[in-house]
Amino acid sequence: MKIERVIISGGGTGGHIFPALAIANEIGKRNPDAKILFVGALGRMEMEKVPAAGYQIIGLPVMGFPRKPGLKMFTFFVRLIKSASMARKIVKDFKPQVAIGVGGYASGPLLRAASAKGIPTLIQEQNSYAGITNKLLSKKVNTICVAYDRMERYFPSDKITITGNPVRENLLQSKSNKKEALEFFGLTENDKVILVVGGSLGARSINNTVLNSVKEIGKSGVQLIWQTGAIYYDRIQKELENSKPENLQIHQFISRMDLAYSVAGVVISRAGAGTISELCLVGKPSVLVPSPNVAEDHQTKNAMALVEKDAALMIKDDEIEGRLIREAVQLINDEKKCKVLSEKIQKLAKPDATKDIVDEVEKILH
Ligand SMILES: CC(=O)N[C@H]1[C@@H](OP(=O)(O)OP(=O)(O)OC[C@H]2O[C@@H](n3ccc(=O)[nH]c3=O)[C@H](O)[C@@H]2O)O[C@H](CO)[C@@H](O)[C@@H]1O
């Protein structure tokens, strides 16, 4: 059955937004006339990234559940009620055949409103640990697409399908565009490249370690592409105004991750689920530094799924100082080890995740 009208909802961070965009693109490819509407959270990253990718988005005033009791709790409930009413109106006006939730605050009210109207719903959980919104929604939805085993700990087992995480399509071609990547980043072909990424928002501890290692980087003989995250960028630029080595380039956000991966010999990264899926797909030797600030330490679990198979290296967040850059440089100069890591990580890739998810969407259409 053709998909004609679909709502995709969720966001908050790149980890939810990029899978949503990959799903939208696949739906559009199969159904060129499909009307696709995104519903996100006002003020969050999706309100910028989704229109930039050419899709329409409506923002709900939802916010995260406050950690401490107080006035914020009141604001939370007021906004939730407003969002629920907006979500009902959006569903009523747009009349989707199906609603897809990718995690993040906005998908809660929207998918609830859709399922209350009898519209089929599907959620996609990127992590080895279920987010709160998806856990709450799991009882109502028709299908739950996951990327890890043993998710029946969180969700009804009869609704689960293992598909893997969608990744942007241009990453699938990333092996063939090294020349374009060298030009794009203004790099030389002679020296190897380490890519440092801190997830879609940047990682404070990784940034501090890189900052403290600039002298070592200057002498390392490798080129470094460093993504700081938007909130840390200005401070770092200022701090390195007079001391930035030539072989270090600083970016607040990398829009062409396909090119960044294609030129990188080694990747230093947080262990967000989306990034992990991408690293598997592009087969990059990686040094993972899981964020200690996420629910149930799920990034360590994401990383361990690779480390246990000797497919990546991991350094704990509180052990990176003095080690991270040194070990990444050692790794990039150890071609044999890089080759083994690259082969092993590629075996864990799920290149058909997006297609498999859209197949599931087609199955639940009325
Ligand atoms: C701090 C936090 O809450 N992190 C969570 C968030 O991570 P985060 O938003 O960092 O998500 P992921 O690591 O899953 O994905 C990041 C995405 O951003 C892209 N990217 C990143 C940097 C950049 O400069 N350019 C760019 O395009 C990556 O290629 C990737 O597609 O969602 C993930 C998926 O639910 C979770 O596993 C993470 O624990």
Summarize the structure.
The chain has 366 residues and is α/β, with parallel strands linked by helices. It is 43% helix and 15% strand. It has helices spanning 14-30, 46-52, 71-94, 107-116, 132-137, 178-185, 204-212, 214-219, 230-239, 257-263, 273-282, 298-307, 324-332, 335-346, 353-364; strands spanning 5-9, 35-41, 56-60, 98-101, 121-125, 143-146, 160-162, 193-197, 223-227, 248-251, 266-269, 286-288, 313-314.
Molecular structure report:
- With 366 residues, this protein is α/β, with parallel strands linked by helices.
- The chain folds into two domains: 5-165 and 352-364, Rossmann fold (3-Layer(aba) Sandwich), CATH 3.40.50; 169-346, Rossmann fold (3-Layer(aba) Sandwich), CATH 3.40.50.2000.
- Helices cover 43% and strands 15% of the residues.
- The chain has 15 helices and 13 strands.
- The chain has helices at 14-30, 46-52, 71-94, 107-116, 132-137, 178-185, 204-212, 214-219, 230-239, 257-263, 273-282, 298-307, 324-332, 335-346, 353-364, and strands spanning 5-9, 35-41, 56-60, 98-101, 121-125, 143-146, 160-162, 193-197, 223-227, 248-251, 266-269, 286-288, 313-314.
- The strands form two sheets. A seven-stranded parallel beta sheet has the order 3-2-1-4-5-6-7, with helices on both faces.
- Strand 11 (266-269), helix 11 (273-282) and strand 12 (286-288) form a beta-alpha-beta unit.
- Helix 1 crosses helix 15 (353-364) and helix 6 (178-185) packs across helix 10.
- It binds uridine-diphosphate-N-acetylglucosamine.
- The site of uridine-diphosphate-N-acetylglucosamine (UD1) has 27 residues, from helix 1, helix 11 and helix 12.
